[in-house]
Write a structure and sequence with these properties.
Length: 202
């Protein structure tokens, strides 16, 4: 017997095959100790449930922290720190772009205008995550589109995004630069929330 943890919703044979091929599997032999093995699975599921409960508590805590422009800029500076070489103009352009578009998604990203989310640390963290997971590729920052330019309510200026092959982008989101960026966004959010007395431990 196999118990699997998978994000794939099984609706056909193809998705069943994908679900069976990927992710963690807990295998229980169908013998006289079957029920003991299933109890081990139950304990593992309990651990996972507790972890998700802790995540939910952290997300709710993020939503209680309001960010003004200065606090947002400080948060994004933690997520996207300056280059080791302060004179590296190309590096600064990349960093400026990430900060710029993350701030735009903080205001205009999916769900970030909802009551209780708008203007919060949760919206800032979501903005970074949306940029990493859903942007079309390398970004053009404010130096390219004009410093101080007001972005439109919907959509990006023409040429603001350059396409990246989906497979490469997914690899980055899961294991590469994108993944590390999301970890920094999480760690920075925990630091800010704790500084505001929310006591996030997840």
């Amino acid at each position: 017997m196999q118990v699997k943890f998978t994000p794939i919703r099984v609706v056909c044979h193809n998705t069943l095959t994908q679900a069976l091929e990927r992710g963690f599997t807990h295998t229980v032999r169908h013998d006289r100790d079957l029920w003991g093995g299933l109890r081990d699975v139950q304990e593992a599921l309990g651990f996972i449930t507790r972890e998700y409960d802790a995540l939910a508590q952290a997300f709710n805590s993020f939503a209680l922290v309001r960010l003004d422009e200065e606090a947002l800029a400080a948060y994004l500076a933690s997520v996207f720190p300056g280059p080791k070489d302060a004179d590296d103009e190309q590096a600064w352009e990349r960093i400026d772009a990430w900060r710029y578009w993350s701030a735009w998604l903080f205001r205009h990203g999916k769900g970030n205008q909802e009551k209780g989310i708008e203007g919060t640390l949760w919206a800032a963290c979501n903005g970074v995550t949306e940029l990493v997971d859903h942007s079309a590729g390398p970004l053009v920052g404010p130096r390219a589109v004009g410093n101080g330019r007001q972005l439109p309510e919907r959509g990006a200026p023409a040429g603001a995004l350059r396409a990246t092959p989906p497979g490469r982008r997914l690899e980055s989101c899961w294991f590469g630069t994108g993944f590390r960026t999301k970890v920094r966004a999480w760690d920075a959010a925990v630091t800010v929330a704790n500084a505001k007395g929310q006591r996030v431990t997840a």
